[in-house]
Amino acid sequence: MSSYSYISHLECSFCGTEYKADSNIQICASCEHPLFVRYDLATMKKSISRDALADRPQNFWRYHELLPVLHQENIVSMNEPFSPIIKLSESGSDMGITRLFAKDEGVLPSGTFKARGASIGVSKAKEIGVRAIGIPTNGNAGAAWALYAAKAGIPITVVMPNTAPVTPQKECLIAGANLYVIDGTIADAGKTLSHIIDADSWYDVSTLKEPYRLEGKKTMGFEIAEQLGWKVPDVIVYPTGGGAGVIGIYKAFQELQELGWLEKRMPRFVVVQASGCAPLVRAYDRGDLFSEEWQNPETIAFGMRVPKALGDYLILDVIKQTHGIAISVNDRAIQAERENVVRKDGLHASPEGAAGIAGVRKLRSQGWIRPDDTVLVMNTGSGLKYTDQITAKPKAFSYSTT
């Protein structure tokens, strides 16, 4: 009889210190770096094969053995569907790429990939007895966590910059979240949150400040592997702010390979940042292990406006281990690709997703991406959440009734 979850323990991603599997510890007590959830993959490999997935519902809870929730009754879910992988035929042809695809996370509840971390994160928070949640956000994460926290009946406080898009602010409010808007960046929002909440009774779910949100992001990797016939593309392009998506997909591939479910090959990971906030690109160019905080970040891709990622060393290591690259694109290129991809291929990409596509165009022009590479861009959310950035005006028409 297989376990519902094969969770084994928590492990510091930096110093390797281990903690109990069902702990509500947030970051490593020894070095204050992010924690990873680890699983008993050796036992799981003997107990279950990937064929067991065939009859399960097509949502990310089908991978429950590799998720941290121990008891099914604690799951907080909205029947999240697989996000589709769409071939961008016209955009690819325009760039000289035969196989260009996008994984469209805009179909998930609240319209972005943040639903993944929120569903698993809230579920685990419920299981370990968390009574209140706090989160700093550039917008979409707050909207997703507010939605799932409401369904779980857990109070949530959200802090976001006052320059964040209006739509996620409204989403937080209608879900009943306690929302604060502040001057500054998401880093400032994090500092503000620490003054608002009581650390002894609240659970701070900032990116990588607890181990379970990352496990939700990891499900993108599971879906990619299964959707591509248990193979990986040549290149994965990820628009990156906090970077949990990059770390999560890589972790998913590692776990699947250890189980023998996935081919023993890694894609080259491309981290794309906006030129107005590119701390990881600067660190990559310098060959640094950690990034320096970016001063005065500014970009229309709000989800990428993160001055310094807590897991920067993990993201940079993924790039190194996969022979990938980190590049930046400017807001003009991002806006141009938003228009291009919807008009050529019908994909209403978020600014972040459009940044990824702009990154593909840049790397193809440089020859880093080859014409015959299979390239997968992550569109992290629906462009419908950013209609305020569309400046085109409708044409007026009048006629006489006489």
Word description of this protein:
The structure is a single chain. α3 (114-127) packs across α7 (212-227). It is built from twelve helices and 13 strands. The radius of gyration is 21 Å and the shape is globular. The mean pLDDT is 95. Strands 4-5-13-10-11-12 form a six-stranded mixed sheet, sandwiched between helices. The termini are far apart. The chain has helices at residues 41-47, 89-95, 114-127, 140-152, 166-174, 186-196, 212-227, 244-259, 279-286, 312-321, 331-345, 351-366; strands spanning 7-12, 18-20, 35-39, 85-87, 99-104, 133-136, 156-161, 178-182, 203-204, 235-239, 268-274, 325-329, 374-379. By secondary structure, it is of the alpha/beta class. It has a domain at 85-112 and 211-387: Rossmann fold. α8 (244-259) links the parallel β10 and β11. Helices cover 35% and strands 16% of the residues.
Would you tell me the structural class of the helices and strands?
Answer: alpha/beta
Q: Predict the CATH topology of one domain.
A: Rossmann fold
Give the strand order, joined by hyphens, for the main sheet.
4-5-13-10-11-12
Query: What's the CATH C level of one domain?
Result: Alpha Beta
Unreliable stretches covering 5 or more consecutive residues: none
The gyration radius over C-alpha positions equals 21 Å
User: What is the mean pLDDT?
Assistant: 95
- How much strand content do the residues show? 15-25%
- Identify the overall geometry: globular
What about the largest sheet?
A: 6 strands, mixed
Q: Tell me roughly what share of residues is in helical segments.
A: 25-40%
Total strand segments: 13
- As an assembly, this protein is single chain
Give me the number of helical elements.
Answer: 12
* Order of secondary-structure elements: EEEHEHEHEHEHEHEHEHEHHEHHE
- Name given to the CATH architecture of one domain: 3-Layer(aba) Sandwich
Alpha-carbon distance between the termini?
A: 80 Å
